[in-house]
Amino acid sequence: MGELYLEDFHVGDKHRSADYTVSEAEIIEYARRYDPQFFHTDPVAAKRSAFGGLIASGWFTAAITMRLMAQSEIRIAGGMIGMGVEELRWPRPVRPNDTLHVETEVIEVRASRSHPDHGIVRVRNATVNQAGETVQTMVTALYVPRRP
Asked: Using CB atoms within 10 A as the burial measure, which of 65, 87, 91, 137 is most buried?
């Protein structure tokens, strides 16, 4: 699939990303830098937490989701430019060795009022683990160029 323009998106379109397996080392590395809480950084202490073991920071899950989306078949001309995120939720934690993928559904396509050469595509994303459990949901607005 080549570069996509606003005219290539339709409400109801669905896409699935590739898989990504999360390692314990990267969960700890990310958390030490950006979310240094014991249930993200210390596997032994995390066993005594409400989670019963080490879990990834939700913000790390969001970063993995972005990577999977950016490397997916949704190749927007000019790049994937986000305008914001709505309804960000983490219904289940991500644990070491979870394999994640993102399921994306187009929920709105409209022309931009202020930039007639662009439009806005709203998508609902679900980040899902190997057991089919949703670990993150969000709605994102993407700034997409119209076909020249």
From this structure: 65
pLDDT per residue over 59-108, tens digit each?
A: 999 999 999 999 988 899 999 999 999 999 999 999 999 999 999 999 99
Rounded distance between C-alpha atoms, residue 127 and residue 119, angstroms: 25
User: How many angstroms separate the Cα of 45 from the Cα of each of 25, 59, 92?
Assistant: 16, 20, 20
Q: Contacts from 30-34 at CB under 8 Å and sequence distance 24+?
A: 30/56, 30/57, 30/59, 30/60, 30/63, 31/56, 31/57, 31/60, 34/59, 34/60
Taking each helix axis as running N to C, give the angle between helix 58-70 and helix 24-34, from 0 to 180 degrees, rounded to the nearest 10: 110
| Cα angle: 19, vertex 130, 41; to 5 degrees | 85
Handedness of CA 35, 128, 12, 145 (dihedral sign): positive
Neighbours of 28 (CB within 10 A): 19
Structural domains of the chain ordered from first start = 6-145 (3.10.129.10)
